[in-house]
Amino acid sequence: MLKIGLTGGIGAGKSEVSRLLAAHGAVIVDSDVIAREVVAPGTAGLAAVAAEFGPGVLRADGSLDRPALGAVVFADPERLKALNAIVHPLVRARSAELEAAAAPGALVVHDVPLLAENGLGPLYDLVVVVDAQDEVRIDRLVRLRGMAEEEARARMAAQATRADRLAIADLVIDNSGPLESLAPRVAELWAELKGRQA
Question: From CA 72, how far away is CA 87, in angstroms rounded?
Fold first, then answer.
């Protein structure tokens, strides 16, 4: 089994690279998806978040109000640390379960947005960083996700810098260009990963 850590700053296109790798046959362990699962209604994770942040982060139906929570944690690094202290151990445990369930010869890609921030590089055989220039990322967040520019900049500022991410990269996918140029780059990455696995 080859264990890949895949990361990239918000708006860099990491999720699209993950999707393309899955199409090639990678087993994807997506930290964002797992992070939603561990705070779903009825979970201990959601109860812990509500206890820490108060009822204002819950919707009327009892589910997590992500925008309300985001407004709190992305404006205050200490509150973000408190949230991560609840969610990250739960995500790590579930990720380990999914990895253990993969076939012995699988190429397992851990899609981890905060890999650099949390010093997780050593956990993987290789770290792949999806990179794009900051202004390209801001444009995508504003144009494609409907974020206000200030919010986009705040989210980026809460993450590692490009330099920090690139410093831990074994392989880099430059995704500053148009989406259609990404698929051939990911095909090359897949060939490289399979070669290293062999």
Answer: 15
HSE-CB at 45 with a 13 A cutoff on CA atoms is 22
What is the average pLDDT across 125-144?
A: 96
State pTM to two decimals: 0.83
The mean pLDDT of 55-68, rounded to a whole number, is: 95
CA–CA gap between residue 112 and residue 110 (Å, rounded): 6
Q: How many CB atoms lie within 10 A of CB 79?
A: 15
pLDDT of residue 1: 86
Strand pairing category for 126-131 and 107-111: unpaired
Q: Pick from 7, 2, 17, 26: which is nearest to 111 by CA?
A: 7
